[in-house]
Amino acid sequence: QLQLVESGGGLVQPGGSLRLSCAASGFTLDSYAIGWFRQAPGKEREGVSYITTSGGRTIYADSVKGRFTISRDNAKSTVYLKMNSLKTEDPAVYSCAAGRAYLPFTWMEGAGYDHWGQGTQVTVSS
Q1: Which of 32, 77, 101, 121 suits 113 as a labelling partner, its CA being 20 to 30 A distant?
Q2: Three-class HEC string of the chain
Q3: Residue 7 has what pLDDT?
């Protein structure tokens, strides 16, 4: 069964950090570009970050630029999202998606991905 499994979410204070992981099960990630998305209650899903198959190009939403870092370890079939300086507007369910297509201009729209994970909850509260 082909799956993406996110982990690393939790409760953190404002200004704190978390590192999310997106691991592939049943397939390898080295042929897939990965997008991270988040969705808060009552809000639309938002594209957070994107990384190409080799990791040579990374893209960030303006809302997280300078605070979040996406990276990947293809040997482990895992993609990471390091989140620093977390704000009260960052809480959401964070999900990863894997796609064979290269989506440099539309990655944030959510279309064109082949596999989605179930998500991991991130809560920011003092």
Answers
A1: 121
A2: CCEEEEECCEEECCCCCEEEEEEEECCCCCCCEEEEEEECCCCCCEEEEEECCCCCCEEECCCCCCCEEEEEEHHHCEEEEEECCCCCCCCEEEEEEEECCCCCCCHHHCCCCCEECCCEEEEECC
A3: 98
